[in-house]
Design brief:
- This protein has six helices and no strands.
- Helices cover 81% and strands 0% of the residues.
- It folds into two domains: 62 residues, no CATH class; 63 residues.
- The chain is mainly alpha-helical.
- The longest helix is centred in the C-terminal third of the chain and has 36 residues.
């Protein structure tokens, strides 16, 4: 599965590459390394939030208010529950929900996590 995913992305991946990646990520990070990683992520987020004026104008229409995100998660939760409870093809519903969660909702979950991290960091540093 891991190899086919890498290959489908046009990457040359073999078993050694996968083992090396697993080995690198299985090492526990020190507190200092975790803090440094967190700082880098915050810098990246700040750069993306305070980008050039023209880029900001282009992206302004793509900014999602927190209330809309909350509403989207609530609606998706209700809809997926309704489909699971009442649709006759349970397997198809579960597959569709899984695909939607992986391909759509996951993006919004990550966005919320980044924003929460950004807000927590600002609260601590201010």
């Amino acid at each position: 599965m891991k190899l086919s995913l890498g290959n489908s992305m046009g990457l040359e991946v073999d078993d050694d590459d996968v083992e090396e990646l697993v080995e690198e990520h299985s090492k526990e990070l020190s507190t200092e390394e975790l803090l440094e990683l967190h700082k880098e992520e915050n810098k990246t987020l700040k750069r993306s939030l305070t980008s050039e004026e023209s880029e900001e104008d282009k992206e302004e229409s793509r900014i999602i208010p927190a209330k809309d995100l909350k509403d989207a998660f609530f609606c998706w939760s209700k809809l997926s529950k309704l489909a699971e409870d009442y649709h006759p093809d349970v397997d198809s519903v579960q597959k569709a929900i899984s695909v939607f969660n992986d391909n759509v909702m996951n993006y919004f979950w990550k966005l919320i996590q980044l924003l929460e991290s950004f807000h927590l960091t600002n609260a601590v540093t201010n």
